[in-house]
């Protein structure tokens, strides 16, 4: 298990220069915007406009704070996303435009290069203790609000808001989560 603290995230300009992003984790380590297999980041969107285009990638977006925004993606119907919405998956290489409901939102972005990886994102809560079934690929737990502990094979790590834990190749062993928090479970699987 590897822990990433919010204070250590790498801050950079968006690929299209329209805003700022905080890179939470990337695989392989030190990959660039052009050669990652997967990437997790947070972005602050403070004006209406287009999203960056990432060739051959799929993206899932979740609103973390703010009043929400409407996404218009290629030929899909426009979708209004808020902090209560399910994570929204769409192709990262399709022309996508955001229209804010208010002055800004912060969102969680998960991307995979579709020729090598796939991903899923689920929003969950813990109030007490729960088990999360791991899988053959990587599992990332991103703490949104509150605090929680993650136990893997007797090793315990505490997550504060916007921290995350990356667990690789757990097989079918469970991850034990405890505390009171809202969080995201992100699963990555290699394309065979």
Q: Would you write up a description of this structure?
A:
- This protein is mainly β.
- The chain has two domains: 9-116, Sandwich (Jelly Rolls); 118-190, Jelly Rolls, CATH 2.60.120.
- 0% of the residues lie in helices and 62% in strands.
- It has no helices and 16 strands.
- A hairpin with a 2-residue loop joins strand 13 and strand 14 (155-159).
- This is HutD family protein.
- It holds the Pfam family HutD.
- InterPro entries: RmlC-like_jellyroll, RmlC_Cupin_sf, Uncharacterised_HutD/Ves.
Features:
192 residues; mainly beta; Jelly Rolls; 2 domains; six-stranded antiparallel beta sheet; 16 strands; HutD family protein; RmlC-like_jellyroll; RmlC_Cupin_sf
């Amino acid at each position: 298990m590897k822990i990433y603290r919010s204070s250590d995230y790498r801050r950079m300009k968006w690929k299209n220069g329209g805003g700022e992003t905080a890179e939470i984790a990337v695989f392989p380590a030190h990959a660039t915007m052009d050669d990652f297999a997967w990437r997790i980041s947070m972005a602050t969107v403070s004006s209406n406009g287009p999203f960056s285009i990432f060739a051959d990638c799929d993206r899932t977006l979740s609103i973390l704070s703010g009043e929400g925004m409407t996404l218009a993606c290629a030929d899909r119907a426009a979708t209004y996303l808020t902090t209560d919405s399910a994570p929204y998956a769409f192709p990262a290489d399709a022309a996508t435009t955001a229209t804010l409901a208010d002055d800004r939102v912060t969102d969680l972005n998960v991307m995979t290069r579709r020729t090598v990886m796939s991903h899923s994102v689920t929003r969950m809560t813990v109030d007490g203790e729960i088990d999360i079934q791991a899988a053959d690929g990587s599992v990332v737990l991103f703490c949104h609000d509150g605090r929680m502990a993650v136990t893997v094979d007797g090793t315990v790590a505490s997550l504060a808001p916007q921290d995350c834990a990356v667990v690789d190749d757990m097989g079918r062993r469970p991850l034990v989560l405890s505390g009171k928090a809202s969080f995201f479970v992100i699963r990555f699987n290699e394309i065979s």
